[in-house]
Amino acid sequence: MNFRQNYIPRALDLPSLLARKSYFLLGPRQTGKSWLIRYTLPEVKIYNLLDSSTYLLLSRAPERLRQELRPSDNLIIIDEIQRLPELLNEVHLLIEEKGIRFLLTGSSARKLRRGGVNLLGGRARMLRFHPFTTLELGKHFELTRALNHGMVPNHYFSDEPDLDLEAYTGTYLQEEVVAEGATRNVPAFSRFLKVAAHCNSTIVNFTKVANDAQVPRTTVHEYFQILKDTLILHELPAWKQSRKRKPIASSKYYFFDPGVVRQLQGRIYTDGTTEFGEAFETYIFHELISYTDYRTHEPLYFWRSTSGFEVDFLLSDHTAIEVKASSTVSPRDIKSLLALKEENTTRRQICVCRESSRRTIHGVEIIPYRDFIEELWSGELD
User: Fold this and answer.
1) How far is it, in rounded angstroms, from Cα 58 to Cα 294?
2) What integer best gives the mean pLDDT of the chain?
């Protein structure tokens, strides 16, 4: 079967975006950036900085971008731009003088965020790329597979996901952390990574993580920043607008893929377990963050009061979302949504679950997760 027959269309319409503006497209390794480019922009000139000859040529003479420009070139792709941030000066010049649009892809934002790097002064927008979504997988989607394999394309369809996931985390340590010089103490970072995986979907106790990983607390903060910069971890800020109940201000953290978390935790997600519920929550977060990044760019939060009420997600300030992996939702499961409802700020309160049909309890909508995902991607939650 050839490439185009194998390809699963993605939710991101790159040609339409690039018709108007240059973009940084940043996402973890193997999420499908290269496949998306090959399928949707097959005729566009690409400079792949993972190719050693291309890297050496442009590192010695960045002006070759200008010298090799053809009259027909109105869009140019530079893959893995974080390997050669100095090239952005040439990119800036070509945007200004020639009106060329660029797609600048990468698997890390670390070097791009360091002082002195030319980020094109707003001439290119930042866009995050994610693993498969339920919408993209369509008939191929299976929940248990998504939670255990993860939704990175190669892993989702793998016959040996454990081996592939183990190799993936090893590649991450080697290529993203070591090659970029993010830390010199790889054994310490490796210990930290496994401890951090057990903090997925939680408010992190940095002191406990430091003790468990056997590293200083200040180092833990540095390591969490490395995970964010290399696009492995998302920080979910707290919603602080509640007035009746005092909110906490600390963030929660989610890994970008439930399969990667599972491998780092050394677990199998079995229906009915606490771990399965945590993975299901991570999966719903993935759908929400993918949707907001690709479509609306709305902020995403969570809410927790000092008295212990907690709602998993708030989409901007209009929709509150609690996630339960249960196939039967009880009034007790929605008590935090009811507490937040008293604030009179959110228009909708939703409990996403695995029930078979929709219903309403005290004004809270109980929605099966497949219905919720469909409603999300159709824009009905905006």
Assistant:
1) 31
2) 93
Q: What is the largest CA-CA distance in the chain?
A: 67
DSSP 102: E
HSE, side-chain direction, 13 A CA sphere, residue 42: 3
Give the residue carrying structure tokens 């997760």. 369
What tokens appear for 336 in the block?
């935090």
pTM of the model: 0.94
Tokens matching residue 215:
């590293």
For residue 254, with 0-12 CB atoms within 10 Å meaning exposed, 13-18 middle and 19 or more buried, which class applies? buried
DSSP code of residue 41 = -
Locate the domains of the chain by residue range: 3-128, 134-377
Q: Please provide the distance, in angstroms rounded to a whole number, between the alpha carbons at the two ends of the chain.
A: 39
pLDDT at 1 > cutoff 60: no
Distance CA 375, CA 6 (A): 27
Q: Please, where are the H alpha helices in the chain?
A: 3-6, 14-18, 33-40, 52-60, 64-67, 88-98, 134-137, 143-149, 153-156, 161-171, 186-197, 206-213, 217-229, 258-265, 274-291, 335-341, 369-377
Q: What is the pLDDT of residue 40?
A: 95
Phi-psi region at 99: left, alpha or beta (left = phi > 0; alpha = psi -120 to 50): left
Q: Residue 3 above 70 pLDDT?
A: no
Residue 4's pLDDT is 43
CATH number assigned to the domain with residue range 3-128, chosen from the 4 options 3.10.20.30, 3.30.390.30, 3.40.50.300, 3.30.420.270: 3.40.50.300
Contact 89, 119 (CB under 8 A): no
The average pLDDT across 111-138 equals 85
Please state whether beta strands 310-315 and 202-203 pair in parallel, antiparallel, or not at all (unpaired). unpaired
User: Sorting pLDDT into bands at 50, 70 and 90, what band is 6?
Assistant: confident
Alpha-carbon separation of residue 269 from 145, 275, 329, 344 (angstroms): 10, 6, 20, 37
Tokens matching residue 115: 């002082």
pLDDT of residue 61: 96
208 and 4 in contact (C-beta within 8 Å)? no
pLDDT score of 5: 45
Asked if the model's pLDDT at residue 116 lies above 60, the reply is no
Q: How far apart are CA 349 and CA 224, in angstroms?
A: 32
Computed on alpha carbons and rounded to an integer, the radius of gyration of the chain in Å comes to 22
Q: What is the pLDDT of residue 117?
A: 62
